[in-house]
Amino acid sequence: MKRIIPTAERGLKALSHTACILGGWFVILLSVGICIEVFLRKVFNESLQGVDEYGGYALAITASLGFAYCFYEHAHIRIDLLTRRLPRTLGRALSIFAIVMLGVVAGLLGLQSIRLAQESQLFMAFSNTPLRTPIVYPQAIWAAGFCLFFVAIVLRLLHIFQSLLSGDGDRLGDLLGESTSDDGVEGSTRQGVE
Questions:
Q1: Contact call for residues 72 and 152 (beta carbons, < 8 A)
Q2: Which of 74, 94, 72, 99 is nearest to 83 (CA)?
């Protein structure tokens, strides 16, 4: 059990990294499509049908696929002005509470997005554009991103509780994304040099 959770978390982190790269390619393809669309409109007075429709799908999917990656990389916005001034135990308790609440929100997003995709499949919903895209496909990918995010949070919480039970304070600090103000300054300085 001691190795299962970290191994599962590493696997999910790799999957979220791959999903994030896939999302990046969606955005690149969208950019190319928009450039072609603008060129065709300006030069030939013609239009590619559906670039805006698929652009909306690409942005929604890219966002949901990127949530788990941002969570693992601690790239989300954290307001830790208060937690840095609290005793370490209380600050860590608040961080764990925040992750639990984030998990609740991610779970609700995942659940509702799955329900939405199921409803679209049940009613055989199509987009109201000339392309008539079956809405269930982009919604299912969108829902998968939210579910990946939820599973990432659950695994992280299990890993956190495992570290709490084993008394591994350093590992707990790493899992919670704790850093000292010196770490933040050093990271900013290093980024400016590179």
A1: yes
A2: 94
Q: Cα torsion for 49, 51, 56, 57, to the nearest 10°?
A: 90
**Tens digits of per-residue pLDDT, 102-139?**
999 999 999 999 999 999 999 999 998 888 999 999 99
Integer Cα distance of 18 and 36 in angstroms:
27
Note the pTM of the prediction, 2 decimals.
0.83
Q: Is 19 within 8 Å of 65 (Cβ atoms)?
A: yes
Assigned token pair, 15? 């999957």
| β-bridge partners, 126 | 134
**Other beta carbons within 10 Å of 81:** 7
Beta pairing partners, 134: 126
Q: What is the pLDDT of residues 51-79, one digit of tens each?
A: 888 888 989 999 998 999 999 888 877 77
Distance CA 106, CA 154 (A): 10
